Amino acid sequence: AIELAMDSVVKIFTVSSSPSYFLPWQNKSQRETMGSGFVISGRRILTNAHVVADHTFTLVRKHGSPTKYRAEVQAVGHECDLAILTVASEEFWEGMNFLELGDIPFLQEAVSVVGYPQGGDNISVTKGVVSRVEPTQYVHGATQLLAIQIDAAINPGNSGGPALLGDRVVGVAFQNLSNAENIG
């Protein structure tokens, strides 16, 4: 399952410029952020809304490749912190696999989180067990929706990466608890 994920998870590079609420006639300075995403059916990439929020330019890179491809943001759901990207380049899709969505995991089931956390340029895999499944306040959208808590490290850059149970996606990494250790 992890081998399948290696050919499905991408690193996302976003240049964004958010609005200035103190000077509404101009935007704040541009900033660059990075996150993760994964390929789903229909040649689409699923990631977090906060990874591409206020984007002006978005690129994606496949695992093991130095080439970055231009991505277009097709849909953003800020309330659920999810976004869908597409890539027009046929070259990008060569060798890419898509991941299928699975069911909500049970407590104590082992999951793997795949992504590109800060501190390195290569893909990272962390494992943990499901410790809680309940509605939680989402930081990005300020909405209370279902969340699956795991005891694996999720760091900035992991956002948008899949949480896998076997070969199915059972969640998307999106936030950690700031006052706790190894809870995502």
UniProtKB/TrEMBL annotation:
- Please name one Pfam family that this protein belongs to: Trypsin_2
InterPro entries recorded: Peptidase_S1_PA (IPR009003), Peptidase_S1_PA_chymotrypsin (IPR043504), Peptidase_S1C (IPR001940)
One GO term of the biological process aspect:
proteolysis
GO MF annotation list: serine-type endopeptidase activity
State the PANTHER family in the record: PROTEASE DO-LIKE 10, MITOCHONDRIAL-RELATED, PTHR45980
Q: Which family does it belong to?
A: Belongs to the peptidase S1C family.
Q: What name goes with this protein?
A: Protease Do-like PDZ domain-containing protein
Q: Which organism is it from?
A: Genlisea aurea
